[in-house]
Design brief:
The complex is a heterodimer of chains A (273) and B (296).
Chain A lengths: L1 H27 L16 H8 L1 H31 L5 H16 L2 H19 L7 H26 L3 H8 L4 H30 L2 H6 L7 H10 L4 H34 L6
Helix pairs in contact in A: 1-11, 2-11, 3-6, 3-8, 3-10, 4-6, 6-8, 7-8
Chain B lengths: L1 H10 L11 H21 L3 E3 L3 E3 L5 H11 L4 H33 L4 H13 L2 H11 L5 H5 L3 H6 L6 H25 L3 H9 L4 H28 L4 H6 L7 H12 L2 H32 L1
Antiparallel strand pairs in B: 1-2
Helix pairs in contact in B: 3-4, 4-9, 4-11, 5-9, 6-9, 9-11, 10-11, 13-14
The chains are: A mainly alpha (273), B mainly alpha (296).
């Protein structure tokens, strides 16, 4: 009992450690002055500044578009991979598995420069004037996010068993209609979860985007990086606060939805049907 | 037993999704991941001509240059690699020490496990850059809390910001969720009545912990350590933001070749050394793991 109370106290400290720095960033978003270290009265003007700075809003829009496109492509590629892999012969499956894991464990800076060298050289060979831009960011993000989706979807696909798929095949349905009518409805939450993760990773990615971006494509993290190097204003804090608020809303909604569907599954629904 | 049974059944044919479904993803991996890695392997044997053109001359000069540094008098690059190793080890250990009691509390005692776990993940979903930037404010001697407490002078004397210590703090903070999640996944599966039984039979708490909890939590510890250690070998962002000019690691070295010096061949060679060192470390780690499993 004593250990339990001690650990409880420790957990509170740990959560303070996790949230205090973020809280500081949010508090200074409401600073009246220009400085992020000297408090000069409460004001919401930096939110207005952030929303009226075209660099910030454009970068935000660009980041969202890239993250959406990335999540879409990653969901398609990752789900296809997750469906076919579990039943492949080991001599084929093992190297593909290894490749997918490699995309996740390679230090990002190494992948970033590799992608940069590749795109520049490929551009030269193909005679493309400026090969870097939004498409290179998108291509590079999909590399590791397809693996993220595959990981999430496959875990669910393997754990839910495949008797229904077998029944569907036995009744004469092809792979496509089996997927649409049997697998997809049960796999949708996992695909959605994988897609959300892919969206987040892409939206937050700095290193890969930074190295493979062109001159005219600035994601939000690239913009923030520039500000951090050359002088910050509370507008950055305000932007961060708005993104955090958005994240929190999504998390709370997802939590409530998951909890409700979990309760329904426990109370209603016959097992195995 | 069960898995092998399933595996044979899976191998025995039966209806399944067609194998060609893997082709788009595998094609993407090969063209945009494997081929680029081969590109830097090849580039590492090239040299710079003119301003930024690369000549693929199959020279060993870049590696010879690094070799001479590692085993010669100046060992500038060797020191950077050793510092990187130190950063990765310190980062892994500190997240483990901070994260284990937290994961343990959530897994064993907490009432709202999902909620508390979500609270660990939420900071992870906040921008990585912003979380590093937060410490730029918090570690500043002029941070209002320090000024209010009259600690500014103390902070200035024991300078933290723009030193390796600031980098260690930032790393422990940013990577903590990556450690807590696998730890929790392992601890959550433990049947705590085993621990109670050991204590009822006379084990003091620490021994019950060492003999039961720790071995069962080991997979989580190992997974979390890999998740933190591997990206830290190439960490670039946190040292730039919090380390000032006094903290410089392998990731910064690679980036410098590409962003400032324009020496892509040397940068590629350094990246190859990082990959090689990481591979060796992982193989040694896996071997040691296999041996310890044989013993127990």
């Amino acid at each position: 009992m004593n250990g339990r109370r001690l650990l409880g106290g420790y957990a509170i400290l740990a959560y303070i450690f996790l949230y205090a720095p973020i809280a500081v960033v949010v508090v200074f978003a409401f600073n009246g002055g220009r400085d992020v270290l000297y408090w000069q009265g409460f004001s919401t003007k930096w939110f207005e500044v952030a929303l009226k700075t075209p660099e910030i809003t454009n970068a935000l829009k660009f980041s969202i578009l890239i993250a959406l496109g990335n999540a879409l492509v990653a969901c398609v590629l990752g789900t296809m991979l997750a469906l076919a892999l579990p039943r492949m012969r080991p001599w084929l499956r093992t190297p593909i598995d290894a490749l997918a894991y490699m995309t996740l464990v390679t230090p990002e800076i190494v992948f970033a420069i590799a992608a940069l060298v590749f795109f520049v050289q490929a551009g030269k060979r193909l005679g493309i004037e400026s090969p870097l831009g939004w498409h290179t960011i998108l291509i590079a993000h999909v590399v590791f996010n397809a693996s993220v989706v595959a990981l999430v979807v496959r875990a669910r696909f393997v754990s839910m068993g495949q008797t229904l798929e077998e029944a569907s095949y036995d009744l004469g349905a092809g792979p496509f209609s089996t997927f649409r009518q049997v697998t997809l409805p049960r796999l949708a939450p996992a695909i959605l979860a994988g897609g959300l993760l892919a969206f987040t990773f892409s939206f937050d990615d700095f290193i890969t985007s930074f190295f493979v971006t062109g001159t005219d494509s600035e994601t939000l993290p690239i913009y923030i990086w520039g500000q951090l190097r050359f002088g910050v204003t509370p507008a950055i804090n305000a932007t961060a606060a708005m993104i955090l608020a958005f994240t929190l809303v999504v998390v709370v909604v997802a939590y409530l939805v998951l909890r409700r569907s979990g309760q329904e599954r426990e109370s209603g629904a016959l097992p195995g049907v | 037993m069960r898995t092998s049974h399933l595996a044979t059944r899976a191998g025995a044919g039966g209806p399944r999704y067609p194998g060609w479904l893997v082709l788009p993803a595998v094609g993407w991996y090969v063209v945009f991941f494997l081929v680029p890695l081969c590109f830097i392997a090849v580039t590492s044997f090239g040299e710079v001509v003119g301003f930024s053109d690369i000549a693929y001359t199959w020279t060993l000069d870049n590696y010879r240059y690094l070799w001479d540094d590692f085993f010669g008098e100046f060992h500038l690059y060797r020191d950077i690699f050793l510092e990187t190793l130190k950063l990765s080890v310190i980062g892994t250990l500190s997240t483990l020490v901070i994260g284990f009691p937290l994961a343990y509390y959530i897994a064993r005692y907490a009432k709202h496990k999902t909620l508390l776990l979500l609270l660990v993940i939420v900071p992870f979903w906040t921008s990585f850059l912003i979380r590093a930037y937060a410490w730029l404010i918090v570690l500043d001697p002029e941070f209002p809390v320090f000024r209010a407490l009259g600690l500014s002078g103390f902070m200035e004397r024991h300078e933290i910001l723009f030193t390796p210590n600031a980098v260690y703090i930032g790393v422990a903070y940013n990577y903590l969720p990556l450690m807590v999640l696998p730890l929790y996944a392992a601890l959550e599966r433990i049947d705590w009545s085993l621990v109670d039984a050991a204590q009822d039979l006379g084990d003091p708490p620490w021994r019950a912990f060492r003999r039961i909890t720790l071995p069962l939590a080991l997979p989580g510890v190992l997974a979390g350590s890999l998740l933190v250690f591997i990206p830290l070998t190439g960490e670039y962002i946190i040292p730039v933001i919090l380390g000032g000019n006094k903290a410089f690691y392998a990731g910064n070295l690679i980036a410098q070749q590409f962003l400032e010096s324009g020496d892509w061949p040397l940068g590629s060679a350094i990246a190859m050394v990082v990959i090689a060192a990481l591979t060796v470390a992982l193989v040694v780690y896996a071997r040691a793991l296999g041996r310890s499993e044989q013993h127990s």
